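== Fold encoding ==
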Amino acid sequence: MSDVNPILSGSAQSIAAYQDAIEQSTQAVVEWLKQPEMYQGKTVEQLRERINLNFTSQGLGNQAAIERAVEYFLKDSLLVHHAQCVAHLHCPSLVISQAAEVLINATNQSMDSWDQSPSATIIEIKLIEWLREQVGYAAGDAGVFTSGGTQSNLMGLMLARDAFFARQGHSIQQDGLTSDLSKIKVFCSESAHFSVQKNMALMGLGYRSVTQVKTDAFSRMDLADLKDKLAQAKANGEQVMAIVATAGTTDAGAIDPLADIAALAAEHQIWMHVDAAWGGALLLSEKYRDFLNGLELADSVTLDFHKQFFQTISCGAFLLKDARHYELMRYQAAYLNSDFDEEAGVPNLVSKSLQTTRRFDALKLWMGLEALGKKQYAVIIDNGVTLAQDVAEFVKTQPHLELVMEPQLASVLFRFRPQSDDMAFVALLNQRIGDVLLASGSANVGVTEADGVTCLKLTLLNPTVCLEDVKVLLASVKATAEQLLKA
C-alpha cells in the first residue's frame, strides 16, 4: 500500500497517517476559529477564479491536500459562530458534536442493517423512543433519523398519501398512483416551508395539489380560513389527504395553533403532519415548552437538530405516531432485512427510512444530551427566544429602525425606515444593506419578506451572542444605510 493516502485501518502506518492528518486539520481549524472577520469577503467571481482542482496522476499526499483545503475552503468559509452571523437557521455547533463527528467518520457505520451498525442501531432506537416521549407519543420506536426537514417532511407526506389510498383499498406501493389526482389536496399555511410543494411534486401530485391557507398577523395558520377551505374542498369534490402545520416558520418563527388544527384534522379524518424542524427545540425548553401544546396529536412530526439543538449538519428525525403505517413503505431485501432477522428480533432500520446507506447522526444528539444535560440544553435554547424579545424592545427605541413583527422564536424581523413614502425604494435599500454587510465580511443579516414588506432578519440561535453584540450589528446596519443614502 502506498504511503500517500492509506486506507484507515489498524496498521501502524495507517494509524500514524490518521493521527497526522487529524492533527494538521485540527490545528488549521483552531487558527481559523481565531480570525476576527466573519467572512473574508470574496465575491462569487473571485472564488470561481481562485478555486482550481488539482488532480494529478501521482497525487499530492495527505499533507499537501489538507493544506490546499485550508487555503481554498477553510479560509474562505463563513464563521457561523461569529456574533454578526445571524442571517439563517444555520447554527454554531456544540464542541461535543464535533467530537461525535470524529467517531462517526472513523467508524463509518451504515445504519441500514444491524450487522453494519450494531451498537449504533440500538442507540438510535433508544433515542427515537426518548424523542417520542418528549413529544407525548405512546411508548414505541416508530421513527428514524433523517438528513433534515425536507426529507422528514417527505416521509410524512408520503405516508399520509399512502394511508389515504389504503383507506380506499388501494396500495400505492404495489400499484402506483391512480384515480383523478387533480382532486387530491394538501393544506399548509402561506408561511409553510417550500418543501411541502417540492415534495408533492416529487410524489407526482405537483404544486397544484398544495392549497395554501391564509395566515394571521403573526404568520400563523388562520383557523377560519382553514375551515372555509376545507368546506370549499368538499364542495368541489376534492379530498384532502393531509394538513401540514408548522411549528416554527423559517422567517417569523410562527407556531400554528396545533391543537385546534388537530381537532379539525380528526373531525375530517385527515392526516396531520407537523413540521417542527425549528420549533421542535422547545421540547427541551423550561420557559416555552407550552408553545408546542398539541404536537402530541399529530400523525407525524419533523424535527431538526442542526438548528436550535446546535448539532453539526446533517441531523434530523422523523417521528410516526402509529407504527402500523410503516407497513405502507416496508420492503423486504434478503441481504438487509430478511424474514429470518425479523423473526429473530434483529432491528434493521432500512425499513423505516427513505435512505439505504445512512450516517449515524444520532450519535451527535446522544452525546450532546449526555454532555450538557437537559438543564443546560434548556438554557441555551431559551436564550435565543428571550434574546429575540429583548432585541425587539431595543429596536422599538431606535430612530429609523422599525420592528416588522413581534418575535415568536429566536428571530427578529425589522427594517431600516428612512423618511420616504416610496416603498420600492425602502425595499431596495434594505436589500442593499444586507448585500453590503456580507460583501464587507463584517456581518451576515437575512433579507426576506413579511406580508409583502422587504425586511432584515436576525436569527439569534447562537447562545454566546448577547444584546450588546446585537446592538453593534444594528449600529452597522444604520451606518451602512446612511452610507447608501448619501451615495
